[in-house]
Amino acid sequence: MFRRVESSLPKDFHFPANLEGLGYHINEADQIRSIEKPDQEFHYFISKNERCVEMQREAMNSIATFSLRNLSLPIRAACIRREVLSRLVSSSMETIRLPIGATPKDNYVPILASSYLATAKRVIVYVGESCQDLGIFAYRLIGANTIASGSAIELVNHLKTASRDPPAIVMANPGQLIWWRRGQRAMTQQTWHAIPRDTAVSEPMMIDSVKNIVPQNEDIQKHVACLFEQVVNKLPNENAKIDIVGIGDGALEVVEYLQQDWKKWEGRVDAIAVGASHIWKTDIKDEGFGKFWGKRGRAYLISPENLGAPLTGRDEFGCNCFSSGEPSYVELIMPRAYRNMLDYFKVVADNPNYEAEPQNFSEVNGNG
Predict the structure, then answer these.
(1) pTM, whole model, 2 decimals?
(2) Cα–Cα distance for residue pair 15/56, rounded to 1 Å
(3) What pLDDT does residue 209 have?
């Protein structure tokens, strides 16, 4: 029997975690483009080797392992996650560690919240998909369009300028629930698989069910519960009204959590907007929440129709349904539809007795 010793195996791929090292820069239009070919977007498939592609992608998306307070690289040379988080911090967002009380030396999950959370009259809670990094809506939009449009930067800046008394926002982090001890940070499953290995053909590291998890945040369900119990329930003003945005599986977990103790949240939650959540009417078990869902819940669905166009689906989902303006990808619903969602929350906030009228659609013939 023959075998190859480890020293003879191909070394793992390595790419510098900064834009210049990767051959890119951020232009004046906030786009990531090639230095040599200014019109060229990020070149994803640089090799037929899957590990090579995976490592380059993570280098581009990375935050590296240093602190935002000790930026050793020029910010315009940093990679995507680091750039996004730095801008959000500059826009009055602060990092909160979960569980509350965790120190930088403990296992923790970072979330983001407005610096004025304690005094805001309204609070928007955002729970995205469990595959995304903190502050990121869609890497595909960041690569094709701008950094601000594919992340929470546009949303946060819009909230700050929308009114004299802007609502605060709390951003959950259901994606980064794996703790990397060597790097001392939480990460997604995708990033975990891009951790450097002994060789390019080595298996990914096993996830230890004790050492690589964060207490009270072992999965998305527990993370949502921790977020609401330790942050949303305690840090804002007790009279603040709460609006909720949930996308994909994040929406499912939020609805499930609220149903478990709706009496506790009934007087505080003002409205809910979900994106591509597929929360069926039969999933709504709590009668009180079901009534609220029908009156103040909205579902934004994948659809080629114009943003905000009414859609059928109330009978299936239990609430009024609207087009997200996004025909293909769940991750693009938030950047496409967030303004429409915020306008809806404003309407509800300005009308304490607001109740959505059930949508009625007349039958159409086979020709449409």
Answers:
(1) 0.90
(2) 6
(3) 93
What is the amino acid identity at position 252? L
pLDDT band at 1 (very low <50, low <70, confident <90, very high): low
Residue pair 212/166 in contact by the 8 Å Cβ criterion: no
Identity of residue 160: K
List the beta strands (DSSP E) in 85-184. Answer: 93-98, 109-114, 122-127, 168-171, 178-180
CA distance 106 to 123: 28
Q: Which of 305, 306, 300, 292 is nearest to 338 (CA)?
A: 300
Q: What angle do CA 238, 240, 241 make, to 5 degrees?
A: 130
Residue 150 CA to residue 60 CA, distance in Å, equals 15
Amino acid letter for position 283: D
| Residue 262 structure tokens | 């709706």
**Structure tokens that stand for 188 in this block:** 């997604």
Report helix, strand or coil for 178.
strand
Tell me what percent of the chain is helix, strand and coil, each rounded to the nearest 5. 35, 15, 50
For tokens 């911090």, what's the residue? 89
For residue 210, the one-letter residue type is V
Where is 288: in which H helix or E strand? helix 287-296
Total residue count of the chain as it appears in this document: 368
Average the pLDDT over 209-217 and give the result: 96
